[in-house]
Every structure is written in structure tokens, then in C-alpha cells.
Write a structure and sequence with these properties.
The chain is built from 14 helices and 13 strands. With 415 residues, the chain is of the alpha/beta class.
């Protein structure tokens, strides 16, 4: 039978996605000042629950309150916010979708205004963002073990709260991605050096979370196809990581790429292939190569690609042609929260949305992020998105609602 967007997908764990459309992780940043879920976040996911997507993946949920990636991060270290997590999960699953929490640790990508220090595999600072990030401190072997335990604890807490699975964020230059990349991992112990040692951190997290959650709870991973930086993790090495993840029984691999130094995940990689852009999805060519590698090795693992999908025909071609099993939609679901339902009903695709620009070259990227962030907050307050909102209105609104100015730094990781 031909595979279509409406075709259900049974994952290796036995969990079933009702269709092939997923709401991908977004930087919702709707936590309160103690990093707990808010009613805005609950209302936002109640709206997305009715979207028609078969899978909703939350934005960054951090596993350590001393290591925040941005203002408004939710943090899960224990059951302190269990009631709010249950309310969030119930909202996300109100219409029967699978709802997974994306678990993450920022590593060196921890803004200095939010954190007393940053940690990483090695003491290598983020380039291209002077003053934004502290020089990181290299983690001890004992601290690495503690972070692995934090991932398992957070996974257990969110699943106990009602979420149906988790996604481990190993892309976009965050901590796990830092361990994978030879640019940021210069260690000479068992956590660095060879490619096998550099992927050990990710594989041990996946294995530990699997033991904690059991074989019937879905575990996904978000992975870079490459760092898009000279000397970084290449597509060939990324493929080796994929094959190792398949052996661990990962339920769904989401393919992305880049980091804060090379923002391929925003579709802005300088070396992105023209053919990939023409085919709508940024990482579809790599997904096809991964599929072939999995097939050649006799392994199977469902694949998801997020980034660039806008038309029903493009999504259907990617699914029907076997390149991917799930298409991820991010920003289109901010402006059109009901888009999956309409696509499944046969509509042609997302309506074009072009955020109004600041016309200040060095601030365009940040301005666009704030523009979409404000739209998320509008939905969380029960309002409709506003495609005509001027970007100059967003900066004071963003600073006020996130509390970015004046927020106290967190305690030291060493403490």
C-alpha cells in the first residue's frame, strides 16, 4: 500500500503515530521564573493538540536548573512541578496525539546572564557571539555521569506526568552535540578522542533512559547531519552515529544540522546545496543517504526531517518516496496551528508568512526569533497570531515577558 501523510506509523516500541505529521520542537520559552510550566504553555499545547498532528514534541526542557539555554526554559530535575507537568501533558494529548518532551542540556551554549558558569567537554568558547557565552569549564568524569543520571530522572518524571515519550536533543551545538564534534571535544579520556569515544555520551544517555523507561516507551533523538563547520562532525561520521543509535532501538531519529556558529537548522548554512533548497526540506538529501546506510546494514529506524517543508506535495513526496517516515513542522504551526488537519484534508500547504524586518543587518536573525516568540505568547494568551505585527514592538515585549533583564544568575555547577 502507498504511504501517505495520513498513514499511521508503528514505532519500534509499539507506540503508534496516527499520521506522518509532527509538530517539531520550538523555543517556546514559556516557563516562569522558577522554570515551571505556565498556563500560557498549557493553552498553547491545548491549541496544538487540536492541530491534527500525530506527534507533538515540546521545546527544550532542561535537565539542570544551573544550566539554562534561554530565558523561559522549563527545567525538570525532580517532581517539584509534577502537577503542572501533568496539566501540560493532558493538554497536549487532549485529541489523542503522542506527546514527547525534548530533554536537553546547553553545555557551553549557556548565556552568561542566566548562568554563573558554562560547562562542556572541553574549554572551548562559542565563537561569533562575543560577550554572550562564558568560556566553559571542562566537565569531570564524575559530572558527566551525573548529567546522564539527570537525563534519566527527567525522562522518568515527564513520563510519570503523562507524556508518552521523550526526545533527546543531540543537535544544534548543545552539550551532547558538543561531545560528538571534534571541534568542541578535545578530551583524551574515554569520552573523547576517537569517534567511538565521542559518541559514548549520547549512547550511554539513550541506554540509561531506555532502562529507566522500559521497552514500550518511545525514545527519539535529534541529531545533526553535520556541523557545517570545517573540522566539525562530518556526514560520514554522523552516519556512524545513526547506525549506533539504530542498534539501541531508537524509535524516531530527527535529522537537523548546525549550531549557533553555523545555523543550518534555520536554513542558513552557507554551503547548503541548491538541490536541497529546491526540494523544500533542508536535510532531505542526507536522510536519503542515511536510509540507504541503514538498509545496507540490515538495520531499521524511522526517520524524521524538520526544516523547509511548506507544501503538501513536498511532504507527500518525501513520505511516499521513502526518504523519511515523518515530516516535522515548526514555524508554520505558529502562524497556522491547524495546518496539519488542513493538509490531511487535502489543502495545498502553508500560507506564505514573511515576518516584517528590522532592516538592521546584524539584528535580523534575533528580530525574527523574537517575532515568532511573541506569536507563541499570543496563542498562549488565547489570541490569534498577528502576521502584521511590527518587529519594533517585539523587543520590549520579549524582554518584559521573559524577564531577561534583571534575572538572577543560577548557582555554580561546581556547587
Amino acid at each position: 500500500m502507498p504511504v501517505e501523510l495520513s498513514t499511521p506509523l508503528t514505532l519500534p516500541s509499539g507506540a503508534v503515530l496516527a499520521n506522518r505529521i509532527a509538530k517539531a520542537a520550538l523555543s517556546e520559552a514559556l516557563g516562569d521564573r522558577v522554570q515551571a510550566p505556565t498556563q500560557e504553555l498549557v493553552r498553547l499545547y491545548d491549541r496544538w493538540a487540536a492541530s491534527g498532528a500525530g506527534l507533538l514534541i515540546t521545546g527544550n526542557v532542561m535537565v539542570d536548573g544551573r544550566a539554562l539555554g534561554e530565558p523561559g526554559n522549563i527545567v525538570v530535575e525532580d517532581e517539584q512541578h509534577a502537577d503542572l507537568l501533568r496539566e501540560w501533558a493532558a493538554a497536549a494529548m487532549a485529541d489523542g496525539a503522542q506527546a514527547w518532551v525534548q530533554l536537553n542540556h546547553p553545555g557551553r551554549q549557556a548565556p552568561r546572564g542566566l548562568n554563573r558558569e558554562a560547562v562542556a567537554p572541553s574549554e572551548i568558547t562559542v565563537t561569533g557571539a562575543p560577550g554572550v557565552f562564558n568560556k566553559p569549564r571542562a566537565l569531570s568524569s564524575g559530572e558527566i555521569g551525573e548529567i546522564i543520571r539527570r537525563f534519566t530522572t527527567a525522562a522518568r518524571v515527564v513520563v510519570d506526568a503523562g507524556f508518552t515519550g521523550v526526545q533527546i536533543h543531540a543537535a544544534h551545538g548543545y552539550l551532547i552535540s558538543q561531545f560528538l564534534s571534534p571541534l568542541t571535544n578535545k578530551r583524551t579520556d574515554k569520552w573523547g578522542g576517537s569517534p567511538a569515544n565521542r559518541r559514548r555520551f549520547l549512547l550511554e544517555i539513550v541506554a540509561a533512559v531506555r532502562v529507566e523507561l522500559g521497552p514500550r516507551t518511545p525514545i527519539g533523538v535529534k541529531l545533526n547531519s553535520a556541523d557545517f563547520q570545517r573540522g566539525g562532525m562530518t556526514e560520514d561520521e554522523s552516519t556512524e552515529v545513526v547506525l549506533a543509535l539504530a542498534k539501541e532501538g531508537v524509535d524516531l531519529l530527527e535529522i537537523s544540522g548546525g549550531n549557533y556558529e553555523s545555523t543550518a537548522f534555520m536554513g542558513a548554512a552557507d554551503d547548503a546545496e541548491a538541490s536541497t533548497r529546491a526540494r523544500e526540506a533542508y536535510f532531505l538529501d542526507y536522510a536519503e543517504r542515511v536510509r540507504k546506510s541503514l538498509t545496507d546494514s540490515g538495520a531499521e529506524m524511522p526517520l524524521m526531517v524538520t526544516g523547509g517543508f511548506r507544501t503538501r506535495s513536498g511532504m507527500s513526496e518525501a513520505i511516499g518516496g521513502g526518504a523519511v517516515d515523518v515530516v516535522g513542522l515548526g514555524r508554520p504551526l505558529i502562524m497556522e496551528p491547524d495546518l496539519p488537519r488542513r493538509l490531511l484534508a487535502g489543502e495545498a500547504g502553508a500560507r506564505p508568512v514573511k515576518p516584517r524586518r528590522l532592516r538592521i543587518k546584524h539584528l535580523e536573525g534575533m528580530g525574527e526569533l523574537m517575532w515568532f516568540g511573541v506569536q507563541l505568547r499570543r496563542i498562549g494568551r488565547g489570541k490569534a497570531p498577528d502576521p502584521n505585527r511590527h518587529p519594533l514592538r517585539n523587543l520590549p515585549h520579549y524582554l518584559h515577558t521573559t524577564g531577561l533583564i534583571g534575572r538572577p544568575a543560577r548557582r555554580s555547577l561546581a556547587g
